[in-house]
Design goal:
The protein is built from four helices and four strands, in the order E-H-E-H-E-H-E-H. Helix 2 links the parallel strand 2 and strand 3. It binds NADP nicotinamide-adenine-dinucleotide phosphate. The site of NADP nicotinamide-adenine-dinucleotide phosphate (NAP) has 18 residues, from helix 1.
Length: 88
């Protein structure tokens, strides 16, 4: 399964829309802060799970079964970006 983060943002949404033209929806999952904002993807058969870079446990759940993960970096710069992207 291919997991995409930031799928409710500008870049991530376009990535998932493009992926849906290339692979079956059942092979795509999104890790998002607010699953309700990804309802249109869920309606198409994409697995939608809550995942936030500030909550490592949520990422473990959202990335479950991943063979590939596409991380869309957050819309922050500097120390805050480093803090959110650092592995825990
Ligand atoms: N837009 C482009 O064409 C483009 C091109 C090249 C590179 N980029 C880079 O790609 C990144 C995203 O850009 P964007 O334009 O797509 O920005 P965006 O629309 O603001 O999207 C940012 C995404 O990151 C998510 N996010 C923020 N904090 C998070 C956290 N703590 N945990 C998990 N997800 C979090 C947001 O979730 P919510 O939806 O819940 O807010 C949103 O989905 C930026 O680093 C930008 O520099 C963008």
């Amino acid at each position: 399964m291919i997991i995409v983060t930031g799928a409710t943002g500008q870049l991530g949404r376009q990535i998932v829309e493009r992926l849906l033209t290339r692979v079956p929806a059942a092979r795509i999952g999104v890790s998002v802060r607010d699953p309700q904002k990804a309802q249109t993807f869920a309606d198409q058969g994409v697995r939608v799970r809550h995942g936030s870079f500030t909550d490592a446990d949520s990422l473990a759940h959202a990335f479950e079964g991943a063979t590939q993960v596409l991380i869309v970096s957050v819309d922050k710069m500097g120390e805050e970006a480093v803090r959110q992207h650092r592995p825990r």
